[in-house]
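Hi all, posting the design record for the shared folder.

TITLE: backbone redesign
STEP: 1 of 1
STRUCTURE INPUT:
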């Protein structure tokens, strides 16, 4: 995050901050929640673009493929979004494993079904200022008595962001974990995860233990 003069904004400890937000899909503004990330020497910011399509050099699953028992059910998509950038090392950071854990509350009136948490406009870049292509495997929340569905698995040797599959009942809080594998090295990323807000309510997000030494996320 930068100020009007283009200088990094710092917190009370002198650390540069970035921001993570949840936005309505396809809108510019209207955040439903927000948080801040901080990391010594990091710079970055967050926007409210809510884009659902991937950009050149990156792959994403722009559409949610939720399935449920009611043929008249219509999903309403929102997007969790966060930025991170840190060039202070003078080279790429390589980190793999548990990347980010996002907690949702399953709404009391959510129909039984499978609800994907899929990728939006995710972008990754290295120190050479080149875009890094990544595969994205959605997470899946199976609600009620629905039969769980597989969303795929990471291919060995391919840079991949992959979500896990969990089960929950109406009214439960449930956490989906996104992991990174075969990371070639990054200094910046935009991470988006799209979810059906008619069935799921965003609660919080934290950086996973395997990446928390590089990225520190705070939400409120």
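Okay, here is what came back for every position:
SEQUENCE:
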């Amino acid at each position: 995050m930068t100020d009007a003069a283009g200088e990094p904004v710092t917190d009370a400890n002198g650390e540069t901050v970035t921001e993570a937000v949840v936005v309505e899909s396809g809108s510019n503004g209207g955040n439903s929640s927000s948080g801040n990330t901080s990391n010594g020497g990091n710079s970055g910011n967050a926007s409210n673009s809510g884009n659902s399509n991937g950009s050149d050099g990156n792959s994403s699953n722009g559409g949610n493929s939720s399935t449920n028992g009611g043929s008249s059910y219509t999903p309403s998509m929102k997007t969790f979004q966060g930025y991170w950038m840190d060039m202070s090392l003078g080279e790429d950071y390589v980190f793999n494993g548990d990347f980010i854990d996002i907690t949702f509350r399953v709404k009391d009136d959510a129909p039984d079904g499978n609800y994907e948490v899929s990728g939006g406009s995710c972008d990754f870049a290295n120190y050479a200022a080149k875009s890094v292509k990544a595969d994205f495997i959605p997470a899946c929340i199976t609600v009620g008595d629905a039969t769980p569905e597989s969303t795929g698995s990471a291919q060995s040797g391919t840079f991949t962001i992959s979500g896990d599959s969990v089960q929950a009942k109406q009214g439960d809080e449930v956490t989906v974990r996104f992991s990174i594998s075969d990371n070639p090295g990054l200094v910046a990323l935009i991470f988006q995860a799209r979810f059906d807000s008619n069935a799921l309510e965003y609660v919080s997000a934290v950086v996973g233990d395997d990446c928390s030494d590089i990225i520190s996320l705070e939400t409120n």
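COMMENT: The longest strand covers residues 97-106.
Let me know if anyone wants the other runs.
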